[in-house]
Design a protein that fits this description.
Blueprint lengths: L2 H12 L10 E2 L5 E2 L14 H4 L14 E9 L2 H13 L4 E4 L1 H6 L1 H8 L6 E4 L12 H19 L5 E2 L8 H11 L2 E2 L4 E2 L23 H13 L6 E6 L6 H13 L3 E3 L35 E3 L6 E3 L61 H15 L7
Parallel strand pairs: 3-4, 3-9, 3-10, 4-5, 6-7, 8-9
Antiparallel strand pairs: 1-2, 11-12
The structure holds zinc ion.
The site of zinc ion has 8 residues, from strand 3.
């Protein structure tokens, strides 16, 4: 990994900006267990998956009337199949991408980058493993390489990450934010679209999928869009299978009928920028020497029904359209546990269903302009595989 990433981590760690949370161990049920004496539900640790603790300084809600869409686990072949529909309906969503998946299917990534209207790209980690299980520098590498590979294909450096399985704690969150300026995005609605198998597909789905059918998802989406008042939706959907497209079309039809504001996750607050090096859609990403943030990270305050941007994103970096502005709202504090989320546990589809089926990672013949960081990333991944941190299926 580049020395500059390690140096930045060392600097923010020394400044006391990285939460001091011990690394948990993995449990067979997919949850994590912290050492005795460490409470995962405490505000200082706040592991949502094992304790339902909900960090209110992450992006976790949407304002009323807003349908903010986040697709996970791409890019896949399904992206191309969506392209005409997105164009016709003028849909813009955020795509939380797996770094390894980009290298596995470079043409999928190219298709996504070229979609019209322009889609919003974000990180879903490089290896799609549970981030809290990684040591600090493994996290720096995993998050950093995911941003690097997205930059190498698109020219844009993401500002947002959604953790695989939604598994996150305060140490992971602060490393993402303080080293890379990246904000954590969760969700408040998930209706298990990934449980719908494509025609002819034979896969044993986990128990959580029991009872989930096209009808059940359609009904849930319709109820969500018909609701009054229109409680803001920060949606989790997946671009793994083509079967997810049918309910998604139902959702969009309902949203349009009821005049929801439809957009990417940055639509949860008008001041949120799209990228580190390009404030909005339609702006060419500024070329950079490395993907580290050149700004003091902005922070968000959520946990209620709105997200508030704290700080001035536009300050401290040159050359881009400002989308920052200075917001003074400190938002709400406390009340981070429990709360009003309708998140469902452990439904992130990538876990165990082979979405990162990379086999032996190779970017040869990808059409990618190979940069040495990518080659190094593959080496880093190989290291993680050896360390047993990555399950390649
Ligand atoms: Zn995932």
């Amino acid at each position: 990994m580049p020395d500059s990433w390690v140096a930045k981590y060392t600097q923010v760690k020394a400044a006391g900006l990285i939460a001091d949370v011990p690394v948990p161990t993995a449990f067979p049920d997919g949850l994590v267990q912290y050492p005795k004496g460490t409470d995962p539900a405490s505000k200082d640790v706040c592991n949502w998956e094992s304790s339902q603790c909900f960090m209110d300084d992450t992006i976790n809600v949407a304002p009323d009337g807003v349908l903010a869409i986040g697709f996970d686990d791409g890019p896949t072949e399904a992206v191309a199949a969506y392209a005409d529909y997105f164009k016709k309906e003028e849909i813009v969503a955020t795509h939380f991408l797996i770094g390894l998946q980009i290298l596995t299917c470079p043409s999928c990534m190219t298709n996504l980058v070229n979609m019209q209207p322009e889609q919003h790209l974000a990180s879903h980690s490089f290896t799609h493993t549970q981030l809290p299980l990684m040591q600090d520098l493994e996290l720096v590498a995993d998050i950093g390489w995911s941003l690097q590979v997205i930059y190498d294909y698109s020219g844009k450096i993401p500002l947002y990450i959604r953790p695989p399985q939604g598994d996150i704690d305060r140490r992971v969150m602060t490393i993402a934010r303080e080293v890379f300026g990246v904000q954590v995005v969760m969700w408040n609605q998930d209706h298990l679209d990934w449980c719908l198998l494509d025609a002819g597909e034979k896969e044993t789905l986990p128990d959580v999928c029991k009872g989930t059918t096209l009808d059940s998802i359609n009904t849930a989406y319709k109820g969500m869009m018909d609701a009054s008042p229109q409680k803001g939706v920060l949606l989790l959907v997946h671009e793994i299978r083509n079967a997810s497209q049918a309910p998604f079309r139902t959702l969009i039809a309902g949203a349009k009928e009821k005049k929801w504001k439809i957009g990417p996750v940055t639509d949860v607050d008008a001041k949120l920028p799209w990228y580190e090096n390009a404030a909005t859609a339609g702006v060419k990403g500024e070329a950079v020497d490395d993907i580290l943030t050149k700004r003091k990270p902005f922070t968000v305050a959520g946990g209620g029904s709105t997200i508030t941007l704290n700080g001035d994103w536009s300050a401290g970096a040159g050359g881009n359209t400002s989308a920052g502005g200075s917001t003074s709202g400190k938002g709400k504090s406390g009340a981070s546990a429990g709360g009003n989320s309708t998140q469902t546990n452990g439904t992130d589809a990538g876990n165990g269903n082979g979405t990162t089926g990379a086999g032996s990672p190779s970017a040869s013949g990808s059409g990618l302009t190979m940069s040495s960081p990518i080659a190094a990333a593959l080496g880093a991944v190989a290291g993680l595989v050896i360390a047993g941190l990555v399950t390649l299926q």
